[in-house]
Design a protein that fits this description.
2 copies of one chain form a homodimer. By secondary structure, chain A is α/β, with parallel strands linked by helices. In chain A, the strands form 2 sheets. In chain A, strands 6-7-5-4-8-9-10 form a 7-stranded mixed sheet. In chain A, strand 2 and strand 3 form a beta hairpin. The longest helix of chain A has 23 residues. The first copy, chain A, is globular. Chain A starts with about 20 loop residues before the first helix and ends in a 13-residue tail after the last helix. At the A-B interface, helix 1, helix 2, helix 6, strand 9 and helix 9 of A face helix 1, helix 2, helix 6, strand 9 and helix 9 of B. The first copy, chain A, binds a DNA duplex through helix 4 and strand 2.
Chain lengths: ~260, ~260
DNA sequence: TCAACTTTGTGCAAGCGTTCACAAGCGGTA
DNA sequence: TACCGCTTGTGAACGCTTGCACAAAGTTGA
């Protein structure tokens, strides 16, 4: 379902062909893409990759929007941020679109990933096929536990956390994934940053403090659950409120 | 770091004390809380729980905002959505605030969770201590693999996926977590929905189609990585653009 | 070639969410 | 009691995001 890009080495910088114009324009364009749109572009890319595998060559904004679960106008606007690659009256060429989105998302180069914290989650991440298959080869694993050092997980031997700096530099790691207990997360983060990692995906339930130039995204499972819980509660609240007045969630009076 | 709530049974509805007014008001208030604010409330709650454990009794919006990584004005506005529980000139009573946020997020009742798909990620989720410790006991596990049926994972025996309906009803599951391969996700989702589950946390890289009354949150690791990748690319782009003109990310000419 | 039909790309307006800035309110102190 | 300093709560402005609606542009078929 995802564009297969194979596994392998880290970052490669190819010599550039000297094209004439528009790089500043492109940089402006890239800068101008709203964060929310970037997230959706990634979703469109996944859907489109599936389409490619099914042999679909052309798709309309309506169809793609349906498959991606968004409004078609929003989709067209999102795509317009990266340029006008559709054909009126026809739709978008799937492969062309895949190519453009991949380029905008920076997927034309591979991003080597380091996972820190080889517990349950770390194991799962190290073995997660979705990373390498989408251009994010797992290049290094780290843990504090010396017993784990050298043990291969998902085909890659675990390094000791003290070696983060050298190993990350060596393997050109560009993204660090923190899957440690919360107490260790900030320290690990600091080490990653001093090792030159500028993008971090944080699974630990902590707010990380980082320099401005470092990009952090967090995935907090408990927060996700609590948001769902809120919706359950709201619903229960509505239902209960229609029947018994004066009672809030859980039968407790909200504002006496 | 989180408020300990212990494990145990499912949903309990206590008889209500008949308080005078304001339930409609509260429902309106709950409805009116912006989604983004709900997510932050969960973060504040985590930080506050940590404060409780450290024996902090009072905290100002400035301090809490710092710890949660947000603007203090935003924090105050977020808190104002759930009522005015601060004291001017002093700050907020930590425990009181914890109580109010927990109530708003619906954490006064426990939410039994079912994890479907006991692969690497499913294992990690089943063993994840962050769930039960924050009021989300894992009540059931499911997988298609008959060999897994009956095998305990994280202390809970795996059920066969065909039993979703009965088991979910029996154990009053209110949240379903989908950790299956993408191909199976929609079918699993449909089963959960027909089993009465109205909140779903989806780890599979698929856009799920559900009825309006079902709440879905998705965690897509590849999308997170791609968003990070976008930022790497933008940065590389900026840097490269300053040196060599006409060359985009990766040395490829962007718009010939 | 022309007309009918389809679909893109986008200007514009409405809706949300964020941030600012300050009045209102509270505790402490003389 | 009256004053002072501190912090909350919120009105209002701003900016981002969404959704509508339609002109522009391309295809198809006669």
């Amino acid at each position: 379902m995802a564009a297969q890009r194979g596994e392998g080495d880290g970052v490669v910088t190819r010599p550039g062909v000297a094209g004439a114009e528009a790089p500043a324009d492109v940089r402006e364009r890239a800068r101008a893409i709203p964060e929310a749109a970037v997230a959706r572009l990634a979703v469109y890319l996944r859907v489109l990759s599936g389409m490619v595998e099914q042999g679909v060559t052309t798709i309309s904004s309506e169809e793609l929007a349906g498959a991606a679960g968004v409004n078609s106008a929003k989709l067209r606007k999102d795509l317009s941020y990266i340029g006008s690659y559709g054909t009126r009256g026809v739709g978008y060429d799937v492969e062309v679109l895949v190519g453009h989105i991949e380029r905008i998302l920076g997927l034309t180069r591979k991003h080597s990933v380091a996972v820190v914290g080889i517990g349950n989650l770390g194991h799962a991440l190290a073995n997660y096929g979705g990373f390498p298959s989408r251009g994010f080869p797992v290049g290094a694993l780290f843990d504090v536990d010396p017993d784990l050092t050298g043990v291969p997980v998902g085909g890659i031997p675990v390094n000791h956390i003290d070696d983060i700096t050298t190993v990350c530099a060596e393997r050109e790691v560009s993204i660090g994934v923190i899957a440690t207990p919360p107490q260790a997360a900030q320290a690990v983060c600091d080490r990653l940053v001093s090792a030159g990692v500028q993008c971090i995906l944080n699974f630990a339930p902590v707010v990380l403090q980082v320099p401005d130039y470092v990009e952090v995204r967090k995935v907090d499972l408990a927060v996700e659950m609590q948001i769902l819980s809120f919706h359950v509660a709201r619903r229960a609240d509505e239902a209960a409120g229609d029947v018994v007045n004066g009672i809030g969630v859980d039968g407790v009076v909200i504002r006496p």
